[in-house]
Amino acid sequence: MKKSHSFKIYPNTADLPSDWDDLARENIFLSKAYLKVLEASAPDNMTCHFFGIFDDENLCGIAISQFLDLNKLESFGERDKCLKTSVRNFIFKNFCSHVLFIGNNMLTGQNAFAFSENSDPVAMLKTLKTASEALKIHFKRKGLKVHLISFKDFYEEEIPDFLQAGFGKHYQFSTQPNMVFPIDENWKSEKDYIDALSKKYRDQYKRARKKAGEIVKRKMHLEDIIENEELIYDLYFHVAKNAPFNTFFLAKNHFRVLKEILTDKFLFYGYFIDDKLIGFNTLIKNGNAMDTYFLGYDDSIQKERMLYLNMLYDMIAYSINNGFRRIVFARTALEIKSSVGAIPIKMHGFIQHYNGLIDKNMARLFDYLEPEVKWQERNPFK
Fold this sequence. Notes:
This protein is of the alpha+beta class. The chain is about 40% helix and about 25% strand.
């Protein structure tokens, strides 16, 4: 009989096994480099741990966890002010303020774990579940009770493995989709993309580009990011706090640290009017995929100049011109991303509350915990 896998929990990247990156080869967000970024500049209310799963002495699985203390947040989001939002905030503050994510709550997509090719995913998930319980006990010893454990952002085809691994009693949920832009293999330039658009959306492209007017886009290097750090954070924070819901806010030094550690794999583009920074977007190269990261802008200029839409077009142009196969646009602003060609990919997760009564009613409560967004899918192509 095959013995079960063992695991180790690492609070520091310096302690990670030397062959960690062998398993992170296909996902930069599990690499030591990116985990070092989190270690140096995680949000104030976040504590990260890293799991190594072993078959005898051989590393066969890696994973990330994030513990979030929502009591440290001044605001969960200021855009929607209604009774339902007030109820949601009350629930979070009183019953769900300590959340343990197995995965990365700062990203969209399966960035929770990577297993070796010849490993049994069910056995690995069982071990990861055991490891998460051990981490829960670790926090309890420190006086922090984990209210909620969430395994997040998995694909439909992964669900049977989770159910076989003992997640049947967890509440299974699906949140807003991950918006992914597949790049046609025949497209070699931005012009090929524009030519593929229907007239309505080609007109939208032309209108947006015309509205941009005198806005100048500029690639920003480390020294530029450092020099503009306060303004960059103000632009980011303005967008973040006006989102419908937040569980964290980035550390002020986050973009600087990203550039220092990821170097040319992290791209930072500033948008200027008369040499004044009025917006920015960021990208992370992840193999043959381009992942969009955080952005910020002056809202009054954004509306007038269609700045956000122009940023999306710029990201598409860069990715096509540089041979990427897809763009991960994540799960905000679903309709506008759909209008440029991104398609929704349904993501799933499992959640369990420490309180049996609350856990039993999780289906009713979840509607408050995860705000529903109504939107219409578009198809911009001929």
